[in-house]
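FORM 7B - TANDEM STRUCTURE REPORT

SECTION 1: FIRST PROTEIN
SEQUENCE AND TOKENS:
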Amino acid sequence: MTVTAIEPKKKGLCALYIDGEFAFKVDTETVLSMRIDVGNEISDEKLHELVKNSDTKRAKDKAMWLISYRDYSKRELIEKVAKDSSTEAAQKAVERLLELGLVDDERYARRYAHDLIFIKRLSPVGAVRKLTEKGIDRDLAREVVDEIDVDTNDNITAIISKKYAKNLFDEKGRRRCVNGLLRLGYSYSDIKHALSQFTDCDDMYI
């Protein structure tokens, strides 16, 4: 097999042509480092090595680029990286970042749990559920959420005041409020207690 063309593409990639036919896109730096050039004869083994090295390079670059913007859980980062590379390459790239301390599920969980409870106003139950959806181990999620000192009633009343207070005096508005708070993970008893501070109406059932 002969490399007949190498065409530069976007995002640091190039298109490789073998025997006049397009083969695939690979990382340009990998092509240069392996000294692949037009006119070179290339074996199946060399081609396989090129693809694997390119995949590994792309996975590492994507992982580093992603964490430069925000924290990710291990599982979440692997899933993101694997969109542009193989799952195996994504796993290896993220494992290396774990070794370097650049990815840390506990650190991520503590920061995100605080945002979920104090910014998004989720209940502790809702925060644990959201953390596990992001790939955090359930026991770790419960541990970090349990460490947060939060007044559930204050959180619920803050949500009601901001989103629902003006519509609490009709049945449809109360149902919408209750359903919204249930989706955030709050218990019906806590919701009813908080609602009693806004209205004397007993018709709060959904």
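SECTION 2: SECOND PROTEIN
SEQUENCE AND TOKENS:
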Amino acid sequence: MLGKNVIDLENGNYTFSDYFKMDISPKKLSKTFGYKFQVKRINFKSNPLNDNLTDFIQNFHRKLFKLRDKVNLNSEMAKREFLIAPIISELVENIDIEVNIEANTYFDKTLKGTIDYVLNNENNIFIAIEAKNSEIEKAIVQLSSELITLDKIIEEKSDFIYGAVTIGFIWCFLVMDRNQKLITQHIDYYSIKELEDIIKILVGILGD
């Protein structure tokens, strides 16, 4: 008999987005698949930014100030086009990474679906998903299922897999420790006003 702290997935067929819809915690989701989950301050590596990225941050804030007066940024499409995609595009221009958008991912009938963004270099993988309806907490559950899936299918011996949930204006970072089977959610959320901190984290993960 299954305990209350795990999900009964027997005879089920689930995608990543199904976990978003469930009324469950990321800890319960993680425990179901044999992982641990915690919320804790993460000491991210913070690489210095080159002049191009520094200029981008300044221009981004200037453009965003004008956009908010002229463009409705409430829709998911608008957030993706104006808030998320420019950041990823700038990373591609400045560091040696590959990007896969809407990556189909499969491990088994309970761990499968599409990941919004997969960014990787030779050493690390970073995934990002947009939180539907701005529901960050539910998206953290979904992201946890995606991190678990990647841990199971990636053969490379990288010790960590990184991820983030974003609603465009807010970013929340998670890290999977593959050796300890432990997912850690960073205790702080980052506002788009803290774009420099967000990009420093991304460059720290993917810029090596």
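SECTION 3: OBSERVATIONS ON SECOND PROTEIN
The mean pLDDT is 93.
The domain at 33-206 is CATH 3.90.1570 (tt1808, chain A).

SECTION 4: SIGNATURE
Preparer initials: ____
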